[in-house]
């Protein structure tokens, strides 16, 4: 009895024109996610199998696969030679710990197997009842678990009961490349994850205001970047020094527009980095109306300085929904560690909630925008995670 993990992809991939592209890309990602474990990944027509691994690596394999976008479901299974006695022993072993009601379902791809599928299911059902009749009962309509037996064409049978939901979505990289504005907060890592899930390969850009914000703030973002890299199959983080720009805005411009103006600079710099490194879109963690800088007027203002599309996957999310995802993907604990974000430096007491475009332009004219952007772009630290 060999331990095997069955991986299924979303059926939509299997029908579309890009089928081979998706399936091959996903195979690459599965192999990359499992590169630290000794195992083989085999591609079948409708699924993949992870085989030849040590029992002790099982948990690690499943947890790595649950971070790969494009995987629809997983099943921990056993593989045995397609012989009735071997299948029966395996089925009985799988039922050892089970209670409640069950049914057996056989899929007989191997037409040379001497027993037909309906007959095999009922014979195995009888075997289960004979051994575990005191704790298990048959219920073909609403069983508490289903014992599946797949008779493969290669003469091997896969036996399993559990189906674990994967993250779904599409393989990372199948929907282009986006540049995520990554703060140390709760929202932007979730926004990045959602775009990965949608098939976008992401890079992250963080604005850092040393010495106003210390090394710990940067380390926190590096830690978040590392967590995201598991979903993104690696991640490049660009750390931009934002101090000069903030000081200049603070010195020369109206206090209530500080955040609006900072956002406009962040957007410009992110777009330039994306153009330089092959990005096609900007991603932010903004959610409509959450804070002063996320009103429709503020978003319009920051959006107007770039040409690239800006994706805001959280725009209609409640904070609690976002927190729920942050917990699920494992970024929440890091996001809530205390830190200083560059946006809290020089924070105005009364930020403009509905900044007027003419006023913003007038205030911005007091700065040499191009030179400030250029300087910031000359000093970007690149961290591969
Ligand atoms: P988050 O939880 O992502 O920080 P937030 O609700 O705190 O979001 P803001 O602080 O207003 O919202 O930031 C809005 C968005 O601007 C963030 O989601 C992020 O995409 C971007 N952003 C803010 N600060 C930074 C930063 N220092 N570096 C990079 N991007 C930033
Ligand atoms: Mg924030």
Largest sheet: 9 strands, mixed
| Class inferred from helices and paired strands | alpha/beta
- Counting structural domains, the number is 3
Order of helices and strands: EHHEEHEHEHEEEEEHEHEHHEHEHHHHE
Shape: elongated
State the CATH topology of the largest domain. Answer: Rossmann fold
Report the helical percentage: 40-55%
Total count of helical runs of at least 4 residues: 14
Describe, in plain words, how this protein is organized in 3D.
By secondary structure, the chain is an alpha/beta fold. The chain is built from 14 helices and 15 strands. The chain has 3 domains: 1-82, Alpha-Beta Plaits (2-Layer Sandwich); 84-151, THUMP superfamily (THUMP fold, 2-Layer Sandwich), CATH 3.30.2300.10; 177-384, 3-Layer(aba) Sandwich (Rossmann fold), CATH 3.40.50.620. Helix content is 40%, strand content 21%. The strands form 2 sheets. Strands 1, 2, 3, 4, 5, 6, 7, 8 and 9 form a 9-stranded mixed beta sheet that branches. Strand 5, helix 5 (117-132) and strand 6 form a beta-alpha-beta unit. The chain is elongated. The mean pLDDT is 93. Magnesium ion binds next to loops.
Descriptors for this entry?
single chain; 385 residues; alpha/beta; Alpha-Beta Plaits; THUMP fold; Rossmann fold; six-stranded mixed β-sheet; 14 helices; 40% helix; binds adenosine-5'-triphosphate; binds magnesium ion
């Amino acid at each position: 009895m060999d331990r095997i993990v069955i991986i299924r992809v979303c059926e939509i991939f299997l029908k579309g024109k890009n089928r081979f592209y998706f399936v091959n890309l996903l195979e690459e990602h599965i192999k990359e996610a499992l590169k630290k474990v000794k195992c083989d990944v085999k591609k079948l027509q409708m699924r993949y199998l992870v085989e030849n691994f040590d029992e002790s690596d099982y948990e690690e394999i499943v947890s790595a696969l649950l971070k790969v976008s494009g995987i629809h479901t997983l099943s921990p299974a056993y593989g045995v030679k397609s012989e009735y006695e071997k299948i029966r022993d395996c089925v009985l072993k799988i039922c050892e710990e089970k209670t409640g009601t069950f049914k057996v379902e056989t899929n007989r791809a191997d037409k040379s197997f001497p027993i037909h599928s309906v007959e095999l299911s009922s014979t195995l059902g009888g075997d289960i009842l004979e051994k575990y009749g005191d704790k298990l009962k048959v219920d073909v309509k609403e069983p508490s678990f289903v014992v599946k037996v797949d008779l493969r064409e290669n003469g091997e049978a896969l036996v399993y009961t559990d189906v674990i939901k994967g993250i779904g979505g599409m393989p990372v990289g199948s929907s282009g490349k986006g540049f995520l504005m990554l703060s140390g907060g709760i929202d932007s890592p979730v926004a990045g994850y959602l775009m990965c899930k949608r098939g976008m390969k992401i890079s992250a850009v963080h604005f850092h205001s040393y010495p106003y914000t210390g090394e710990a703030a940067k380390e926190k973002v590096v830690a978040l970047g590392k967590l995201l890299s598991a979903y993104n199959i690696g991640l490049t983080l660009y750390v931009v020094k934002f101090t000069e720009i903030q000081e200049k805005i603070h010195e020369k411009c109206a206090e209530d527009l500080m955040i609006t103006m900072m956002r406009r600079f962040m957007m410009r710099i992110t777009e330039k980095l994306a153009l330089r490194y092959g990005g096609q879109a900007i991603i932010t963690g903004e959610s409509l109306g959450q804070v002063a800088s996320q009103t429709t007027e503020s978003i319009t203002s920051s959006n107007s300085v770039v040409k690239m599309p800006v994706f805001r996957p959280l725009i209609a999310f409640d904070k609690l929904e976002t927190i729920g995802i942050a917990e699920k993907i494992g970024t929440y604990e890091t996001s809530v560690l205390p830190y200083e974000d560059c946006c809290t430096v020089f924070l105005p007491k009364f930020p403009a909630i509905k900044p007027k475009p003419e006023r913003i332009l007038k205030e911005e004219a007091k700065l040499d925008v191009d030179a400030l952007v250029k300087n910031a772009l000359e000093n970007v630290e690149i961290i591969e995670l």
